[in-house]
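chain below, 419 aa
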Amino acid sequence: MAYLNEHYLKLKAGYLFPEIARRVNAFTETHADLAKKVIRCGIGDVTEPLPGAAIAAMHRAIDELVRRETFRGYGPEQGYEFLREAIAEKDYRRRGIAIDKDEVFVSDGSKCDCGNILDIFGHQNRIAIMDPVYPVYVDTNVMAGHTGVDDGSGAYTGLVYLPCNKENDFVAAIPAEPVNLIYLCYPNNPTGTVATREQLTAWVNYALRVGAIILFDAAYEAYITDPAIPHSIYEIPGATGCAIEFRSFSKNGGFTGVRCAFTVMPKSLSAQTACGEKKPLHPLWNRRFATKFNGVSYPVQRAAEALYTEAGESQILKLIHHYLGNARILADALRGSGLDVFGGINAPYIWVKAPRGYSSWEVFDKILAEIQVVITPGSGFGKQGEGYFRVSAFNSRENAEEVAERFLKLVWADRADAN
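prediction:
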């Protein structure tokens, strides 16, 4: 009989979002009369149509595929040059960051890249992860065998957890113990908060000093409204020597169903072998792409390229303003109901402190049962997320306004057993 990867058996019962879906389905099956009233503000999926520039570009690309003269089969695994050049120029060089197009690797999603990056790193690494955290960072390390078992509190042995809470403005402190890989996500999912230039500089300086690599998830950078907040880790001097950056077209261009993202792997970045010999990471990531990936489809890459045109950038800005407008409406209502609210200004997520004495899942059940709104329990993002919940601003304006009205109707009975 074949053997399985037993590291999968260490995973908790279900990935957070399928568990939410299971609970919502159970509620709608037993409350058929309320099923149509359910509004989902849990998972961060976009709702608005694709930008017109992207749609037009996809149509043109499809038309090319119907003629032998312009037909395209396999493309370069790393991405077409036209898109890699647009990314390097528009996202980096015009911000004064020297990134070459061959340091850009186009993929089908940042979620995938955040997990796949582990292929090029050894099992010896000490890994630091923010808490609360996007669950993919933790679960993929469990699957890869980089952790021990769940210690019973929702944390896995072998990982270094970096608490992010109200006291530190949800920005992790530099760890006291040595680490080799560091996951940072800003604007942050789930808290919706950002890291300042000074805070990111401290992280880069630390990584350079100890020889660590920062895995920087910047999937929500387009939502940054504060001009003082960096959009890229590479705005920090020295970061190309210690950081890999992940970006996505899912939340700025609405590509959650279309699938397109990219990773920046600087050629100046290196790690060491077990014998202590330094080796560049760029060739390894390139080899991984060439071996395990056949590239994003041509029409999708043309659509992504179109987002960098004048029309595309204008249309993206309208989408960002729409979702941030939703965030403002939802956050105001939550504050109006007496709750402590964070985020929602430079990110499409709102992080809310649960009322006194309520667990995250108790809040989830109460909000679903009483006002038929789906939120995300904070405990699903880690130990530090207990006692919080996340609200997504990805929705229609009509739904956002309706949810805001419902939030204001909630009545919270104070409990003695405070969180």
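The longest helix spans residues 310-336. The chain is about 35% helix and 15% strand.
thats it, cya
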